[in-house]
Amino acid sequence: MNEKEKAVIETIKFYGLLERPLAELELYRYLSAQSGKISFFDTIEILEKSRIVKNMIRQKNGLIFPNNQEDPTASRIKKIKISQQKWKVLKRKIKWLFLLPFFKAIVLTGSMNFFNCSPKSDFDLLIIARKDRIWSTRLFITALCEIFGMRRKAGKTENRFCLNCFVSEEYLEISEKAKPRNFYSAQEYGRAKLLIERDDEIFKKFQKQNCWIKNFLNAHPWPGSESQKLKEIKFFAGLVKIFEFLLSNKFGDWLEKKAGERQSRRINSNLKIEPADQICVSPTCLMFHPNSKSFEVMERMEKSEI
Predict the structure, then answer these.
(1) What is the mean pLDDT of residues 231-256?
(2) Which fold has domain 3-71?
(3) Per-residue confidence band for 16, with pLDDT thresholds at 50, 70 and 90
(4) Full-prediction pTM beyond 0.90?
């Protein structure tokens, strides 16, 4: 098996574990990185001519999946329809976050980005916060989502916001301490889609500072990652400027300090580190992925014989 064949097999195997068959263009988009770049035409040629790959995969209705997996095409159509409806719900709900101060951008991660939702799926958000206001940003977003019943809780996940990652604009890189650097994490952030951006080019800075993703993905960044970006609501923008002005002083600094102390105490009191937990609390990054699926998926990927 050469490196190009290995890249194709690894990617199909990974998405097979997520029960997500791939179209040819999707396979190229999510393709595992190897020592040399692989073109879209290389990918097609491998699918058509490689005996090794043909013996390990199946194709049906334009979808590619492992040959040891049950036909997922009917399930795929169902998940696409669910995801399309959820995008409508997300765009309606996310507009309320325009009311909030101090965030620079809101980015969508998770199953929504590759149309792999179940009815109970939530909306995973990565929030980029203003320098020295990461705790205040989390405080305000959490409070608003609680008030409007939009925050994910145990037993309540459907169409709710999962506020699992906050990073400061001064340090946009997802560190190894916050998240293991592997194929799973690279896929998660490589698929990220920009929803709201108040500071021009900050999402591009996020992509640039997380260049480690290129060690795992053949084609990154992928065009279209800003295609779902929403326009600023002018009335809300005016209110936010006033709010930020009123809190850009010593009182705002005091509030940030107190918010950090209170939230840190609460996080530490609830913290029970398990092997599958990805928890990181620092002045520039807040990461909350208890019971992350990434460990299980990567372990199964290593053991899989496809």
Answers:
(1) 95
(2) Arc Repressor Mutant, subunit A (1.10.10)
(3) very high
(4) yes
